[in-house]
Design a protein that fits this description.
Structural class: alpha/beta
Strand content: 5-15%
Number of helices: 16
Largest sheet: 7 strands, parallel
CATH topology: TIM Barrel
Number of strands: 10
Number of domains: 1
Radius of gyration: 18 Å
Helix content: 40-55%
CATH architecture: Alpha-Beta Barrel
Shape: globular
Distance between the termini: 32 Å
Order of helices and strands: HEHHHHEEHHEEHEHEHEHEHHEHHH
Length: about 325
């Protein structure tokens, strides 16, 4: 089944490029940039990937991002991910990047977006992988910071097609970013937002009604609200679900509790994605394989999930 899932043509719509930083590459970049990491080996770092919640993960995630310093670093990060996509027959990607993670530590936005975009362009030409880049705001920071990031990014408007919202969901509802999302839409950008992972179904409602998003990232806790699920099904609002991430971060204690296949059978446009694959134990095929192993996903269901991902693409 793994080999069949691996060859299945699919798209990835929810993946943080900084979250694809494998320990081996992290150590290589640290050496290149003369940065001392708090871990003494790749194995020690991998052992640290034992998270009890989203915040514990984010603490290591942001620390690891410190090794990204130059355009070449961002290119190498993105290219390594795209080579994994080639091996797993991922034919379209719409990855996120977090400018504020880098500008807050003195790395210019231009450095990150140029290195990433050059790798995406090379993948289109050399690997046949189409793509669109999503600029994400960090929700634990202020809306004013998000506005400043959007303004700083506008000279590079042709390099990204949408804005998103990620980071710590608890205490940072979508309503906090209503105005900056309105500004992004006025600039012709599409919008997506993380909602309904840590946060309650109410955050999904807010993302839809206040941010007017084209797609919900995660969204699994919509399952707790029958009225919300009815809307998601009726309007065919895509949900970019990340099964391994959801279990790694204790949204569900184990995969057998995950509702993704029940959501699929009810008619929701759910898709499978890897979120932060270097940290959560698998890329796209591994997420599909986990659904087969722990939930008994059939080939027909896998095909529908893959088709959903291709149909839920937003990049032109």
């Amino acid at each position: 089944m793994y080999d069949w899932l691996n060859t299945l043509p699919k798209a990835e719509l929810h993946m943080h490029l900084e979250g694809s930083l494998e320990p081996e590459l992290m150590f290589q970049l640290a050496e290149r940039n003369r940065i001392t990491l708090p871990w003494d080996s790749v194995e020690t770092l991998r052992n640290a990937y034992n998270f009890n919640n989203l915040q514990e993960f984010l603490d290591i995630y942001y620390q690891g991002a410190n090794v990204l310093q130059t355009e070449q670093d961002f290119y190498d990060l993105t290219w390594a991910y795209l080579k994994k996509c080639e091996k797993q027959n991922v034919i379209h990607v719409e990855p996120f990047f977090d400018p504020q993670t880098h500008t807050e530590r003195g790395i210019e936005l231009q450095v990150a977006i140029t290195g990433i975009s050059e790798a995406l362009a090379d993948a289109r030409d050399m690997l046949g992988i189409s793509s669109g880049l999503i600029l994400s705001f960090l929700r634990h920071l202020s809306e004013e910071d998000a506005f400043a990031t959007l303004e700083e990014a506008m000279p590079f408007r042709d390099l990204f097609f949408a804005v998103g919202l990620d980071s710590s969901e608890q205490g940072n509802p979508p309503s906090k970013f209503t105005n900056v999302f309105a500004k992004a839409r006025a600039e012709g950008l599409l919008t997506v937002a993380h909602a309904g992972e840590e946060g309650p179904p109410e955050y999904v409602w807010q993302a839809l009604d206040l941010l007017k998003v084209n797609r919900i990232d995660h969204g699994v806790r919509a399952w707790e609200d029958p009225r919300l699920m009815a809307r998601i099904i009726e309007e065919q609002i895509p949900l970019t679900v990340c099964p391994l991430s959801n279990t790694k971060l204790r949204v569900y204690n184990n995969m057998s509790e995950h509702p993704i296949l029940q959501m699929l059978e009810q008619g929701a446009m759910v898709t499978v994605n890897s979120d932060d694959p270097a940290y959560f134990g698998g890329y796209l095929t591994e997420n599909f394989a986990a659904l087969h192993k722990d939930l008994g996903m059939s080939q027909a269901q896998a095909q529908r999930l893959a088709n959903n991902s291709l149909n839920a693409r937003l990049a032109p």
